[in-house]
Fold:
Amino acid sequence: MAVELVIDHIGASGDGVATQNGQTFYVPFTAPGDRIIATPTEARGKGQAATLEEMIAPGPDRIKPACRHFETCGGCALQHLPPEFTAEWKRQKIIESLSMAGITEAEILPTLTSPSGSRRRVEFIAAKRKKGVMIGFHLRRSHQIFDVGDCPLLAPGLLALIKPLRAMLPAVLPRNSTAKVMATMTNNGPDLVITADTELDLGMREVLAAFTAENMLARLSWRQGSNRPPEVVSARLSADISLAGVDVTLPPGGFLQASEDGERTLAAFATEALVGATHIVDLFAGVGSFTFPLAEAARVHAVEGDAELAGGLQAAANRAIRPITTETRDLFHRPLLVDELNKYDGLLFDPPRAGAKAQAEEIAKSEIPTVVAISCNPVTFARDVALLIDGGYSLGPVRPVDQFLWSPHIEMAAVLRRQ
Structure:
């Protein structure tokens, strides 16, 4: 049964939140002050999800979305809100997470937001149906696929691949099958990894090789199932990215920061915080997004759980003669211990969304004077920072960085110093 609601605020997942008769409703694509008609759907937590049916009167913050596909495509949640509203909302998410962890006096700097058209890494969903291949994103909270046309998020080089992929994939995908297409912009063109439960024959390989050449890809790899390593099918040029003037070759599907602008912002924060440190350890180093900028003024030991990422980082460092050493180590199960950490006078850690609880517990016992914490999850960030504060560190400025434009996600960097 439809209900009339007035949206009060935006919740953690980007939905508008309204309360009526003690019941909480979560309504996507709504803004504070919107007066709406909505239809409740399924239960969500202690409240009820609902679908927007009619806009009776828009709130003062609502703006025209940047994309004609907004509300249909499942890729964005916040295009109907002004950039300054979203920037402050994301900053408040960090404040709330820190407060829930008992940290109430943090200095949270203004959010720095990456521009539109700067997203250099994206995963498309492709589905072959009777009439051809659809390629795009899952509809919001659905397994259905929206066949994307325009996207103001993506770097132009990635957006330009959609039509050619739609034309090529029918030759390599069986009917009623799906695939994932991970696309990353590199110095030498897009790098693609296609994941599908299909074994390639000679004809398919020839199609993929021709596609690589015709679309000026750096490289195209095929992964037969999500549990298999990707196989390079065709490579035109090296899939390199530049980090502090050093060309680093990405392994197929290797993690990379979402935008070059966001990466530079985070790296600048880290290098400024660690000025004066001469021997730095970079934990969860990945491809070296922060290792190489830090190595311009210090020796850096980079620790990464993925052997291929660590190997590529070391090879690039050796070619460029940078003072970098690497170590392959699972920091979730084997964190660096206190005696190992105390060899360094600076530390940076940038874990996945799950955070670095075990490693943070060891850092909290160490004597390292300066620590930089980078995270893409305010909740696990707050938990890990609280562990360091309990161990005697003081929290300095926290910098929110929004390289996930129009989504509820936010990146953040903080400096902590041993008291």
User: Anything to note?
Assistant: The chain has ten helices and 23 strands. The CA atoms of residues 65 and 303 lie 42 Å apart. The chain has a mean pLDDT of 95.
